[in-house]
Every structure is written in structure tokens, then in C-alpha cells.
Amino acid sequence: xxxxxxxxxAHQLVGSGKGLLAMDESNGTCDKRFAAVGAPQTEEPRRxxxxxxATTPRLSESISGAILYDETIRQGKKDGxxxxxxxxxxxxxxxxxxxxxxxPLAGHPGEAITEGLDGLRxxxxxxFQIGARFAKWRAVIxxxxxxxxxxxxxxxxxxxxxxxxxxxEAGLVPIVEPEVLMAGxxxxxxxxxVTEATLHGVFNELYAQGVILEGIILKPNMVLPGLNCPxxxxxxxxxxxxxxxxxxxxxxxVAGIAFLSxxxxxxxxxxxxxxxxxxxxxxxxxxxxxxxxxxxRAIQQPALEIWRGQERQVEAAQQALAHxxxxxxxxxxxxxxxxxxxx
Length: 343
Prior knowledge:
Layout: H1 3-14, E1 19-22, H2 27-37, H3 43-54, E2 63-68, H4 70-73, H5 83-89, E3 93-97, E4 102-104, E5 112-114, H6 120-130, E6 134-141, H7 150-170, E7 173-180, H8 188-208, E8 217-218, H9 235-249, E9 256-259, H10 266-281, E10 291-295, H11 297-307, H12 314-332
Parallel strand pairs: 1-2, 1-10, 2-3, 3-6, 6-7, 7-8, 8-9, 9-10
Antiparallel strand pairs: 4-5
Helix pairs in contact: 6-7, 7-8, 8-9, 9-10, 10-11, 10-12, 11-12
């Protein structure tokens, strides 16, 4: 795949007025969420839940791409049709999570490094053959007393850049996800400083590794106060701080920005995304890249709570999933409102 083709795929994913659905939870994470709603924690319920998502009617009207996990990309419907084929036939581009998770970073207590570079070239070739056309790698940056360290930001930025270069070599669009975590008591201003410093480090490494920016998607956190911060900013204040940070550090050549939800409540994530796109459409804003979404729980959670592992609840769960996707598509146009939640 040429760089022009990579750029075209990236545009399809984030420049088409739709967003991404992250259904790439590891088996362990998926099982924890199943346990919380009383669903069985084995492979067959995981497969059945993924079939529920992949076969949701009209999902492609709001979702351009779906990020899968290694188990998921090899699974299929009960009739044997692979999920990759189901998604592709529906007009949704399949993608794949390729990192192997965050591990403690040696010499840096309280910080983590995302692993998975060993053998990645061969795994990317395999995923391309299976049908994936983009990939995702998540780095986590914690805020705390003396954190993050330069060593942590640098190590994760370098790993993200090496991953991105390998993806482009294999013909896959890399989603670059440096997530500044919400946990902590930090203020919005502190999150803004850390987010900007992290993104500076990431783009410096992407440049050093020869990554073509037109063929990547950035998946950042929104700029938010810590979960335990006593001062809570308004939706408009969060949107303004986030857009301001991105304008300071993200090159115009980047294909697009797809925000992670990071555990935000579904409706709040939609409202904040909507406020950012209102800024993008305001007079004189002229943002150089589209602002989209790449949500997991903020789309899936209502459906999961309805389904709870019960086949008779599939249709109702699909309706809830489609509703959240529609709400977030509306947010990309600055047309989301709380009234949509009552329809």
C-alpha cells in the first residue's frame, strides 16, 4: 500500500463525518466488564457480544472503522462468517490493537511502558492478510507527584514512533494513542501542560522515525481535570482547553484526531466532543484536521448493561449501541444535545 493509499484510508476513517468504535478490549478487561454486569466470562459469550456489535443494523452510518483484539479478529458469527468480513461488507474498516499492554517502567516507580515491539513486523503482516487496514497502540502517561518523568514520556514516544513506522511499512494506518490518564487530583491546567509536553515528544519521535503524518491518526485524551480534583470545569472550558492544546502541538499534516473517551460517562463524552466541533465550526477557527471519536465504553456500556449475556436482549442492546453511535456522529457536526438522550 502506497503512502497515498494510507492517507486515503486515514481520511475514510476520520474525515468522513463518522468515528471509530473501539472493541479491542483484552480478554481480561472484557471479562471484568462482563463480571460487573453478571455475564459469563468465557470465550463464547465474548464472541456472542462481539457478534451483537458487528451486526448492529445501520452501524456504518455512524461508524467508519472498528478496532478489534487478536481474539476478535479471528472470531466470527455463529454461522462461521468472520467478523472482518461482516464489518467490511457493512462498509466498516477493520482495525487491530497490536500492543501487548503497559508494564512497569524500570527505574521509574509509578510509571509504565507499553510493550509489543518484538515480533511486531511479522504480526502486522499477518493482520494485513486477515483483513485489517489500520492498527492501534496505546501508551499511558500518569500525572502525580513528580510524574510524568522525561524518561517515561520519552520511552513511550519512541515506542509509539517505532510502531507507527512498522505499520506504514506493512500498509496499515497507525493510530497513535498517547493517553494522559484521568486518575489523580491534578487540575485541568496541569493536564494541559502534560498533554502538550507528551504530544511534543511523540511528534518529535515520529519525525525522527520517518513516519508520514498524512497517514496517521492521533488518538489523544481530552484535556480534563483529574477525577479527584475538587474543581470541575464546564463542558465549554474543557473543549476550549483541548482545542487550544492541539493547535499548539499537532502538525497540520496529521490526517485527523479521534479522541479516546478514557472512562468518561457516555453523555458527557458526547457533549465535550460536540463543544469542540462547535469551536471548529465557529467563525475564524479553521482547524487543520477533523475532530472525530474513537470510543469504547462511551459507546458500548449502555448496550452491555442491557445485554448482560442474555440472547433475548440482543435487539435492545443493539438499539442502545446504535443510539450512542448516532449521538456521537451528531457531535461531529456540533448537532448533539441532551434532548437526543430522551428520544
